[in-house]
């Protein structure tokens, strides 16, 4: 396991705990796949059922990676959930671990 993968796994544990959950096997597997795709600069397509923890599984590796990332969602409701609920909690939880500012915004067009 690479150092980046270890950081992602640790950050995922912290973020999931901060929102009151426990990491799930599918969520961990997806987060590792996203981390590998970001690290290796290749595309990734993932399908997972409701309740898998997809949002954290792609957001946490992206935040640990430290580069700008565009997340496209199918619904406005998910955009609001990410911006108003998930990302602020993740930011607060990972503030000490990442040691840098995290910013996020909704772009519409």
Q: Can you walk through the features of this model?
A:
By secondary structure, this protein is an all-alpha fold. It has one domain (3-98). Helices cover 61% and strands 0% of the residues. It contains 4 helices and no strands. Helix 2 runs parallel beside helix 3 (54-65). The protein is globular, with a radius of gyration of 13 Å. The mean pLDDT is 90.
Structural class by SSE content: mainly alpha
Gross geometry: globular
The secondary-structure element order is: HHHH
Strand content: under 5%
Number of strand segments:
0
C-alpha Rg, in Å? 13 Å
Oligomeric form: single chain
N-to-C CA distance: 39 Å
What profile does the largest beta sheet have?
none
Write down the domain tally. Answer: 1
Give the rounded overall mean pLDDT: 90
Unreliable residue runs: none
**Continuous helix count:** 4
Helicity, as a percent range: 55-70%
């Amino acid at each position: 396991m690479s150092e980046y993968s270890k950081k992602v796994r640790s950050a995922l544990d912290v973020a999931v705990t901060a929102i009151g959950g426990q990491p799930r096997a599918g969520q961990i597997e997806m987060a590792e796949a996203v981390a590998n795709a970001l690290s290796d600069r290749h595309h990734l397509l993932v399908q997972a059922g409701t309740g898998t923890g997809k949002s954290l599984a792609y957001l946490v590796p992206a935040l640990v990676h430290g580069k700008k990332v565009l997340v496209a969602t199918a619904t406005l409701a998910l955009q609001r959930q990410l911006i108003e609920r998930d990302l602020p909690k993740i930011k607060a939880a990972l503030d000490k671990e990442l040691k840098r500012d995290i910013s996020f915004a909704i772009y519409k067009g």
